[in-house]
Amino acid sequence: MNKQILRLAIPNIITTITVPLLGIVDLAIVGHMGSEQYIGAIAIATMMFNLIYWNFGFLRMGTSGFTAQAYGAVNKTEIMHVFVRAMSIALLSSFLLIVFQYPIKVLILKLVSGSEMVENYAILYFDICIWAAPATLSLYVIKGWFIGMQNAKTPMWIAIQINVINIALSLFFVLGLGMKIEGVALGTLIAQYLGLFTALVLWYIYYRKYISFIKIKEAIAFDKMKEFFKVNIDIYLRTLCLIAVFTFIPAEGAKMGDTILAVNALLMQFFMLFSYVMDGFAYAGESLAGKYFGARNVAMLKKTIRYLFRWGGGLTALFVLLYVFFGKYLMILFTDNQNVILVAKEYYHWILIVPLAGFSAFLWDGILVGLTATKIMRNAIFIATFIFFIVYFSLSNYFDNNALWLAFMLFLALRGILQGVLAKKYTSEFNT
Fold this sequence. Notes:
Layout: H1 2-30, H2 36-53, H3 57-72, H4 76-99, H5 101-111, H6 116-129, H7 133-148, H8 153-176, H9 181-207, H10 216-219, H11 222-255, H12 258-294, H13 298-334, H14 338-344, H15 349-371, H16 374-399, H17 401-431
Helix pairs in contact: 1-8, 1-12, 2-6, 3-4, 3-7, 3-11, 3-12, 3-15, 4-7, 6-9, 7-9, 8-9, 11-12, 11-16, 12-13, 12-14, 12-15, 13-15, 15-17, 16-17
């Protein structure tokens, strides 16, 4: 079981880590263009696309869960039909994003604003990269489908290829051809489509034997599409709650001053570092829980959950020790601003709680996606989000930024606890 978990988790961890690395490189490229406005433009443009694509996370997660269950049940027809369903939604959604790009752009810029020049550069980046929507959303589906098929290595290599090409092309356009922000955008656009081409080629090489099982009318039948959307609406609502919390934290921090804003951004890097690792094991949970659920193998399903939590517990202890003994060195790595580091030490104790509070939520997210038990995820995060805002607004006048971090810790912990309680009831019913 440990080998199965690591075979799926490690490639997904590597895949996850490549994303922020790309962001760092893009920032470094624009940081040498001679104006801080380019940096601001990339930051705003990145947030614009985050706000768009976060809403389509269900294409990855929903596809993974349904595919894993069909794989476990050895239902080759359903395996292919999940792919067709998800791809049809991805292509339709991307078409609508392109058609309605102007009102979408205007709406987001009202939420995420900057100086006129920064916004103009961000718009230029947006106008180019929005045409990558079909490739981006299709890659969400393909990644989820591969994970559902117990294949984590292929998405890893695709992600690495996309990021390497993106970096190479951006450097070529900016340094070689003298382009500015549009060069970075073109690098991203081309890399996405080359990644999609590679993904489809590999999909065909590995799984072309499944093509004969496709029956288009059955794949997009109303009842099947309804079931797909029913699960994915829950995932979508969960995502909205995550967006609400993770955008509220920097927004409230900004009200407390630039220093607190910077401190919270710095400390959130510790959470993100932990999340990169735990997400890998969550993906493993999706694949294995879905497979054994589809196969109706209760014993192996429970064994999977048990072993995942052993890994989660071990990694939690490791990260706590890492943050206790090496936290100050990590802060220096993230920033050289001594004032920010000094103030951050006042709130650093919250970071030691992050692994303990958060690991269960990550693991249950993956397991429940595999089980397509998305109502549990939705209900748990609804309650946790409600408690987050209640706690913060009740205590903010007395504890300021500490109230924000306390609310965040409760948000993480409650998600894990509630999902665990509700999932136990769900698996018991399944067992009977």
